[in-house]
Amino acid sequence: MIPWKEVTVRCLCATWRPLWPECVLQRDFEGFEELEEAVVHEIVSLSNSMGLEVDDDDVEELVEEHSKELSTEELLELHKEQNETLKRSLTSEESGEDEDKEESRIIPAKDLKDAFFCWSKLSKLAEDYHPDVGSVQKAISVFNDNVMNYFWKVQKS
């Protein structure tokens, strides 16, 4: 027999929700303050173990700064700044390459065609026969974004 003092409100709600949904609140924040405090202490101890000098006030200040809602204008401005930063970094990468490097990066069209053919065969094989479909799709997507995207851009130019 379970003593009732040990049964949490969360457990009771989880039990009653399927049986009588109207009697259970959708959100229960009981004990949230203790949980938040425990999380702050965990972040501080993890940061200290990594050699950072962090205390509870630092974490709470960071949470407070990030908890304020941004207006639409502020979000648009932030998005614009991020785009500008990305453009600058891409421009500096492109302009930083030597002409010699650019010439050595010319890829024959036949090699590109072979690479695309091999990649399509390999990705199709993995999708058809690998048991973990989710992992395969994720891996293919990452490879497409990080590797093949470069070759597609080269082919277009």
Automatic annotation (TrEMBL):
Residues 82-105 are annotated as: Disordered. Residues 82-91 have a biased composition (Basic and acidic residues). This is Tigger transposable element-derived protein 1-like 149.
